[in-house]
User: Fold Pyrophosphate--fructose 6-phosphate 1-phosphotransferase from Aquipluma nitroreducens.
Amino acid sequence: MTISALQSERAKYQPKLPNSLQSSVKLVEGKNTQSVADQDEIKKLFPNTYGMPLITFEAGEKKQYPAVNVGVILSGGQAPGGHNVISGIFDGIKNINPESKLYGFLGGPGGLVDHSYVELTATVIDEFRNTGGFDIIGSGRTKLEETAQYDKGTEIMKELGIKALIIIGGDDSNTNACVLAEYYAAQNTGIQVIGCPKTIDGDLKNDMIETSFGFDTATKVYSELIGNVERDATSAKKYWHFIKLMGRSASHIGLECALQTQPNITLISEEVELKKQTLGEIVDYMAGIVAKRAANGENFGVALIPEGLVEFVPEMKILISELNDLLAEGSETEQKFKSFTSKTEGRAFVAGILSAESAKVYTSLPSGIADQLTLDRDPHGNVQVSLIETEKLLGEMVKSKLKEMKKVGEFKGKFGTQYHFFGYEGRCAAPSNFDADYCYSLGYNASFLIAEGKTGYMSSVRNLTAPAAEWIAGGVPVTMMMNMERRHGHMKPVIQKALVELDSAPFKFLAANREKWAIETSFVYPGPIQYWGPTEVCDQPTKTITLERAK
Ligand code: FBP
Assistant:
């Protein structure tokens, strides 16, 4: 296989570990924990794994651990650094005992159920060190939620002598990991389950998980692209670029990219929700900025739009929630809806079962957007926000608004648009130094959690704005992050998603600067990720984590 010059050089990079994980560890137990909300319900649902203490590892005396066979699963969307988590686990379990073995389940959680696996030997691991992607074993979105699936997992893990399973995933996948840990504990299978916080979306974070891996690299890639587009805009001076950014419901990606590139408009879904802004109000805000810039002779600009925006616009939110309930998996209405072969008939049926208000909104949407809301769901029942073309919806609406403004003399410029969606471009980039080190540390740390017999924990590495040597490694009980939420029309225990908080330092920084950035062109061009060179270029963590930790 031909590999690029960068890949070949980058393979030699030795990721940094916290001092505490360099050879052996001493486990220090902290306070017992509670779930973030709904304590009684969560405790009842997780009798074996609820309330466990926080764990910190300190450097310790050399200990003898028995060899351990470990299974690993990559779950959900790709995020840069997944391969380094796996190489960290591999090196970690070999450090614990050279006879340990690592098995990778293929194609995501489905690989565990279908008994599809591969042994990850040193040769395989070496090929993937410091590379982007999840192709070492593939990923998938199968939801592990049936006991029959868990039992199939037990079967293959017993056969392979696997004592612990590591699930590398986002909030939904780690929720599954938690349920699995509880089940295996209740069944006395002796199989431990450990989670690793993955997602470019940055929405799996809390006091103990400062960031999910992949967020750093992905936002650096998008910021490079946005910077390039900004420079094009300011060169040609003839287009407004409407850029939608991946990230599901949370706007962390959009916010981070805005802090890095200082565009003219940044929409934050969480703010839209809090201020109950309607689509019309958002359009007025955007058109107002376009008109003001045009008055200064600047008929160009850049607007960042989070992919989850429509879910937060009040009238859209109500519509989506009605659709989620009406089209809940297995419901009579879902069956009926599925029976329509024509999309037009399907839409007419849906419009007929919605409340009058929601039907009005639904029928006013372009048919493509309406279809995206009803037809495209992921296996977790979420609307597939990355498929909704919000940037075009807003671009069209701003165009109409500007036409009206032109008639009454409120807009005298031109409005040409270009649309972009940055998402998949960033998910498999070669991990930044930060993600390469962080991921390797998460994996290495997970191997100590296993060696120490822990289950139901998420691998945690903190103090991330300090040099890697000073990072704090340990474990957080997954039940600590849980609350009850409505999913598929039923209440379920799930990890609470971290959305952008309006009193957070990163948002406040945006809010304090956005009026200036809107009118005065203040673009910043971050350029591509650098892997070698001065620390201030190569080793900077995200602005989000830097501002959050500076408070
Ligand atoms: P995860 O939560 O699985 O990490 O998803 C990340 C993500 O990239 C989202 O930002 C995006 O909405 C989604 O995956 C797209 O999913 P798919 O890869 O199935 O198209």
Summary: Residues 78 and 507 are 26 Å apart (CA to CA).
